[in-house]
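Run Palmitoyl thioesterase CPT1C through structure prediction, thanks.
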Amino acid sequence: MAEAHQAVGFRLSLTSDGAEVDLSAPMLQEIYLSGLRSWKRRLSRFWNNFLTGVYPASPLSWLFLFGAIQLSWFLQLDPSLGLMEKIKELLPDWGGQHHGLQVTLAAALFASCLWGTLIFTLHVALRLLLSYHGWLLEPHGAMSSPTKTWLALVRIFSGRHPMLFSYQCSLPRQPVPSVQETVRKYLESVRPVLSDEDFNRTAGLAQEFLRLQASLLQWYLQLKSWWASNYVSDWWEEFVYLRSRNSLMVNSNYYLMDFLYVTPTPLQAARAGNAVHALLLYRQRLTRQEIPPTLLMEMRPLCSAQYEKIFNTTRIPGVQKDHIQHFCDSRHVAVFHCGRFFRVGTHSRNGLLSPRALEQQFQRILDDPSPACPHEEHLAALTTAPRGTWAQLRRSVKMQAAEALEAVEGAAFFVSLDSEPAGLTKEDPAASLDAYAHALLAGRGHDRWFDKSFTLIVFSNGKLGLSVEHSWADCPVSGHMWEFTLATECFQLGYSADGHCKGHPDPTLPQPQRLYWDLPDKIHPSISLALRGAKALSGNIDCHVFPFSHFGKSFIKRCHLSPDSFIQMALQLAHFWDRGQFCLTYESVMTRLFLEGRTETVRSCTREACNFVKAMEDDEKTDPQCLALFRVAVDKHQALLKAAMSGQGVDRHLFALYIVSRFLHLQSPFLAQVHSEQWQLATSQIPVQQMHLFDIHNYPDYVSSGGGFGPADDHGYGVSYVFMGDNMITFHISSKKSSMKTDAHRLGQHIEDALLDVASLFQAGQGLRRRCRGLGGKDSGHKCGSLSLQTESSRAPTTSADF
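Sure, done. The structure for Palmitoyl thioesterase CPT1C is below.
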């Protein structure tokens, strides 16, 4: 790598006085440049932190204030009301020789104090403004007078040209909901899935909890909310992720896919070169805080704290709990290919390596004929082992191969050059997409370093993918980075006519550094055991991906409905057809309206949703009746979604109460029951956040196809979906093959049937035939739905508006 190459600058020479080290001129220059780069980074971080700390003010505002005070003093006016005179008395007396300097210093100190007070006032005012959530609860398209006034004030206090972390000092803290209201919402959410007997028992436990323990536990949470940045997020990260002892593979990681229909180049090394360069450009913008903060309604900022750990981050295993290790900077990536590990430098003297230079380095790895050392090929399987086991084994690895381990864990990110192709194929599109998703989620169990914040996967045919460790951040953050990467590597960096990265190779670059692992013999059986466990876990996961192209977001919006709520209600219908019963449904929604907010759960299986599903199964119900119930269910889901986003959800509050009870050694049967609930249907929407990066009208195929995750329950499903442009929805479904109750492909068919069935309720979807209803069984319903698809799947929804 480039850094190691500079070590030759140290020349050993012998003189009559003995041995001395002679520093060559290039080495002195390199030391100087290295120090200069380091100080530039420090000054840049300091300056950026200063700018974000004083935002929405600016350094120029201090200069203006200082000038105004000086001018007032010159005109014999005292804007300080005597404070400057008192400040002058505290300054050293230079015998009256520097009276003008004393005045200037007093004015500067007074201006600084006044400026700091104004900035603090601005932060408080903006925090109070951002605590208002009335805009979120209003119907779409309607805006009340208070909200208009609030919007105008936010515009005034928000400043201009914010940096990524500019709003962090002004974001409100997440409120602790009323415990009585949380319990009421919880009982309402479980009523549809419990029998009368079970519900009465649960309600009794809830009342006992409110009477005996709730007030004490709530008091501790209130205390924490006053002291900590967020009353729940740090516990969520620690107890849900870092204290989990299960394998990260499938259980914790999720994946993001490449373009569905397009591969910009079939050359593996070229695609890797452009992708790595684009990722490092994103890191460069992140370091400089040049990424604008995410704004809702182009005005309401979201918390940006999770962006800090995208790069240079590794989850270190521990016996009892893991911890996240983040490095300030890293100038290399760790690369895995055919069982071998390499360290590839990403910078030269002139800065970031060009895409063509990176392609050259990756091609050298692909052309390297050296074999993997014994057990090195499967070493990464240890990162799939139970965390306590891996923590103990890691000590042995670190003792014997510290340099190699540090190179991997200290890398900017991990790159896996896969030896197999992936992606959509014309010969078998359905099976190829499923295999693509499976390769991203689990791989072969030994070709991903699951501890890294993310692994960039480059397949042999040039297809890309991302495997992301979940503890450090949630999908919208990594998705934001992935959108930038795909758009930059394809539209800005581009490829030459022969498929290579643009530019010229650099023959002066040293070869990528091969990492060698001197592993003790006692660890070899553990690697084999971890590999068997990883293959068993990988072999048990069933992935199904299908693009739904009958209609998309534009059709749903013409129906004056929320696209997300539309999909969630269709999922309830599909799951009922699949299992013949209702279940607790987990939908993840962000709480980044608050400082250090992460996620909250929307319990989508509501009484209103169940009423709609039952109506769809009742042949006596007419289409208008079903449509009316559908709209009621959608409105209920929207209300739950907005409440969760505004900090009034159920599950994070109950989770935090449960953690407090464990700290206090209080036994709560009610909280224990809540904590033991199983989510048989876990869902999430993959947001597309930067549509301006993609020209979907001229290049409709250049849109990411989203990603997926494993099921939350052994007998459940994991379902994610992404709206690709205006006329397509891609679904990612996972389940476990060991379960006799689930089948990812079967649920996928039900989802397609349900979407067509729901769409046919609207005037704009009359061309889509509905399923047969009221046959009283999921098997008969599925057959009818399949027939409906066979006869009507080629029909597109009409474009007439509904309603």
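The two ends are 64 Å apart (CA to CA).
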